[in-house]
Structure formats: C-alpha cells, structure tokens
Amino acid sequence: MVDEALRHVPNHDGDKNIDQVNQIRDSLAIMGDNSTTFSLPQPHLQRTKLCDLKDGELDQSYVQKREQLKEVVKSVIRPKIVQGKSLNGNEFVSFLEKILEALNKVEIPSTGSLVEVFNKKILEGCLKLYEDSMTKVILPIHEESLQSIHEASRAESLKSFGEQHFGRHHARNLLKHSMKISKR
Hints:
2% strand; mainly alpha
C-alpha cells in the first residue's frame, strides 16, 4: 500500500508540480525505508459497541485484514534481548510499565527520549559488568596483563551493550559506552 502511494507519477510533459510531488515521495520513501505499514477498514459502523461484537458481526473485510495483520506482525517481530534475556509475557508487561513510567517522567516524550531512558539502564548494567570484571583483578599485576584484562572486559561489556541496546543509532551509543569504560 505504501509502495503504491510513494510510486512516481509519470511526468511526460515535465510539469514542475509533478516533479515536486515525486521529490516529496522520494523523501518520504527514504524516511520510511525501515517501516512496515498496514491499514484496517472500519470494523463496524457502531464503534461504541465494538467490544461486545463477535467476528461474525464485524465487517468481513476488517476480519480478513485483521488476520493478515496478525501474520504481518508475526513475520516482522523479533524477540528483543533485554538485560541478557528474551522477554516473556509478564516481562513484556513489566517492560510496558517501564515505558509508561519513562513517558510520564519526560515533559514531552519522544521516541528518542524514551530510547535514551532504556539505553541508560542498559548502559549502567554493562558498566557494572565491566567494573565487576575489573574488581576481580588481583594487584600487583604487570601492566600488559592489566591492559589485556581491561580490553577483554571492555569487549565483553560492549558486546553485551550491543545485544541489548534499543534504537538504530547504536554506533553513537556504543561509542559513548566505550568512552565511559575508557575513563574508568
């Protein structure tokens, strides 16, 4: 559906307005490159009764599209590892409660601010992983050995952060995480 909406309109006459519309479509296509969309028709004309209606009473095109949507969601969803483990149902509810808590803490919530809240917790856990590893070092120790242990601990912490973080700007987050470890 989105691909159809973003498809270029033929402009055989070189109309500037059509060129502009096609440029807008190109920009939207770039912004939504990693998005999946799906539309559902209105399930029933009496929306106030929707909770009481059975599937047979709903518009059948809605029921069919809803089932298609379920399949689309199943095909694109991937389990997310949070703090080293995949979320089950109860953990997902807890996760959503944390999202709501984070949203309520920020004046004007945005995806970025929400992601930062979760990444901060993940970052703290990874820093603790690094610190725990480094506190096990028995001193005195040769500088080369200490450097080797530091690099291994840092790599383990970065790997853990890379597996758990949220958002697409992970390179920036990894760099920030790496810089914090280097300062320790």
